[in-house]
Amino acid sequence: MTQTNDPHATTDTTPKLQIRGLGCSYRSRGRRLQAVADLDLDLGRGEFVAVVGPSGCGKSTLLKVIAGLAPRTAGELRLDGRTLPDGVPPEVGMVFQNDALLPWRSVEENIAFPLSVAGTPREQREARVAELVTLVGLDGFGHYYPRQLSGGMRKRVALARTLAYDPDLYLMDEPFGPLDAQTRIRIGAEFLSIWEQVGKSVLFVTHDVEEAIALADRVVVMTHGPGRIHSEHRITLPRPRNFEEVRFTEEFRDIHQRIWHDLTRAAPLDGAAHGGSPTR
Ligand SMILES: Nc1ncnc2c1ncn2[C@@H]1O[C@H](COP(=O)(O)OP(=O)(O)OP(=O)(O)O)[C@@H](O)[C@H]1O
């Protein structure tokens, strides 16, 4: 470790993201709803953390608060050891369940969008877009428009666009959510192999426990709302992983069982897992 006078200087052991005492409440129909409360979590450099939890427990809210898209009503966020001010941090890229592509722009133009905004010179931009189109398996579809693509293809475009933006921290909210099971497995496998090459820090929300285990270094289980961390599970399955085959190993089954067990404890006893706790 190098000696330095900068109190915020990062080292390899400084977590990419530190979340301390995080709270978020929404105002809805004259009442306050506490969606996330007192949540602590660290995300290491190049670490992939998946977040699972009962419906409505505040998973999406957690990502939105980090991305500056929902109000942070308590707590602190640190990125590379530096306190994040309120607002949208440029180092953070979010992939939503809804792929949010620009319908009037082609695949290539959608992927190029963050590069254009960043002022990347045209030649460099075109080369990077061509690379990304190949990386996500869309060769030959560069001139198509979103409406001409399947749901899985649109997800790949959204993923390529995030890769073009190349944020330090990926926030992914059910990015394969509405896809059918087969496409979900295919795109999950592609995403896993891409991530294993780029090695960025990822916070990934999913309802699918198997998907969480197959992808992540760590799976955290949230309690029902107001959401906080209930438990954490380190996933020691060797990498590179085969996204599909890894599910058939005994180790995978054991982890799966432990997480399910925690999930049933994290949900309210009456099963009414709609999250949030209304307060005046
Ligand atoms: N903009 C908003 N205004 C008011 N309440 C909101 C808003 N967004 C979310 N909520 C409430 O906050 C709580 C947490 O919602 P959130 O979407 O974060 O949960 P989630 O765990 O991602 O849910 P799911 O798994 O069903 O997608 C819920 O009770 C939800 O109704």
Automatic annotation (TrEMBL):
Name of the protein in its database record: ABC transporter ATP-binding protein
Highest rank taxon of the organism: Bacteria
PANTHER family attached to this UniProt entry: ALIPHATIC SULFONATES IMPORT ATP-BINDING PROTEIN SSUB (PTHR42788:SF13), TAURINE IMPORT ATP-BINDING PROTEIN-RELATED (PTHR42788)
GO molecular function: ATP binding
InterPro entries: AAA+_ATPase, ABC_transporter-like_ATP-bd, ABC_transporter-like_CS, ABC_transporter_ATP-bind, P-loop_NTPase
Residues annotated as domain ABC transporter: 17-249
Keyword annotations of the record: ATP-binding, Nucleotide-binding, Transport
